[in-house]
Amino acid sequence: MKVLICRFSSLGDVILASSLLNPLYEKGITVDFLTFKPFGDLYRKDYRLNRVIEIDKKDLKSLKDIKNLTNNLKNNNYDYFLDIHSNLRTILLSKFLGVKTYRYKKNSIKRRLFLYKPFRNVLKDNKFNVVKAYLEILKNLNIIDLDKYRPELILLDEDFKGLDFLDKKNVVVLGTGARYKNKMYPYFSDLARILIDFKYTVVLLGSEEDKKLDKNIYPSEVIDLRGKLSLRQSLAVIQKATGTISNDSAIAHMSRAVKTPVLMIYGATHPYFGFYPFKDEGDYIIKNIECQPCDLHGKKSCKYEKQICLEISPEKIFHKFTDMLDRLSHKNITKYKERLMVK
C-alpha cells in the first residue's frame, strides 16, 4: 500500500503531522509526504518516509499549477491521499489526483463559535486536539490503538554538530516569538532571570524576526540563538534541553516532537483550538479571562490595547514549569532515543 500525506503549512502543523508516520511505518505502508519549502527539511533522511515532495508556495497558486502538480504525482500510483490540511487547494489536489481520499476534520465551526462567550459553556467539554484529529483518519486504513502516538521527528548526528557547549548543562529553551503580538508573552526577560537564579542555562530560539520584535533586554548569561540556526539545529538544541517554555507557536511543537517537556503560554488563543500538549508532553498556562480567546489565530487587535491575557507573573510560570518537570521526571525519551541517531 502506498499513501501520500499532504500538509503544506504552517511550521507547527507540519511538525504535528509527524504523528502519522510511526503508525503507518509500523504497518509497512509506503509513505510520501507533500509540503511547502522549507518544511521538507524537517523530514530529511527520515527512515519512515519513502520520499519528501517539497514545492515552492508561489508555484501552486493557480488551478493550472495544481493540475500540473497532480499530473506529476499520478506517476507514483498512490492508493490513498491523506489530506491533513483540508483547504481549497488540497481539495482540488485530491480531485485531480483521482485516488481515494481521507480528509482531516478541522472542527472549524465549533472552534469559531468558541470565540463567542455564549457558546463557550456549551462547547467547553468537547476537547478537540489536532493530533488526535490527524490520527483519526488512519482508522480508515484499519489502523487502531492510536492514542499512544505523538508528534516525532528523527534527528541525525550531523544536526548536533557545534552544540557540545550545551552538554551537561541544565538547559531551558524559551520560545519568545509568535506570528502575532497578542500571542507573545512580554516578560520573558524576567522569567530568564528567575531561571538563571535557579541555575538553569537559558537559550532563546526562534527566527531573526522574532528577535527584532522582542522588546526584552535579557541578562548577559542568556544564550541568544535566534536567527542563527537551521530548523534541524534548533530541534537538536531543544532535544538537549531539560524543558521548553514557549508561546503558542512552532517552538512548542518542535519541543513535543523531540520529547522535551514544554509549557505553553496562551494569550489571545486558547487550548480549545487543539494545539495544546498532551499531559505526557507537557502543560499549558492560561488566565481564562472572559475575552479569551479573542481570535482563532491571535491576529485580532486587543480591544484593551494592552494584552491583559498575557499579564501572568514570571514567578507563576516558573512554578508551573518546575511542577511540570517534576511530574514528568524531567524526561522520559528512552523509546525515542532508540530511533534518534538514524543515519
What does this structure look like?
This protein is of the alpha/beta class. It contains 13 helices and eleven strands. It has two domains: 140 residues, 3-Layer(aba) Sandwich (Rossmann fold); 182 residues, Glycogen Phosphorylase B (Rossmann fold, 3-Layer(aba) Sandwich). α11 links the parallel β9 and β10. The strands form two sheets. A six-stranded parallel sheet has the order 8-7-6-9-10-11, with helices on both faces. The chain has a five-stranded parallel sheet with strand order 3-2-1-4-5.
How are the SSEs placed, and which strands pair?
Elements: E1 2-6, H1 11-16, H2 21-26, E2 30-36, E3 51-55, H3 63-73, E4 80-83, H4 88-97, E5 100-103, H5 108-113, H6 117-123, H7 130-136, E6 171-175, H8 188-197, E7 201-205, H9 208-213, E8 223-224, H10 231-240, E9 243-247, H11 250-257, E10 262-265, E11 282-285, H12 314-327, H13 334-340
Parallel strand pairs: 1-2, 1-4, 2-3, 4-5, 6-7, 6-9, 7-8, 9-10, 10-11
Helix pairs in contact: 3-4, 8-12
H and E string:
EHHEEHEHEHHHEHEHEHEHEEHH
The CATH H-level homologous superfamily of the largest domain: Glycogen Phosphorylase B
Largest sheet: 6 strands, parallel
Oligomeric state of the chains present here: single chain
CATH architecture of the largest domain: 3-Layer(aba) Sandwich
Concise synopsis of the structure shown:
It contains 13 helices and eleven strands. The protein is an alpha/beta fold.
Key attributes of the depicted protein:
343 residues, alpha/beta, Rossmann fold, 2 domains, six-stranded parallel sheet, five-stranded parallel sheet
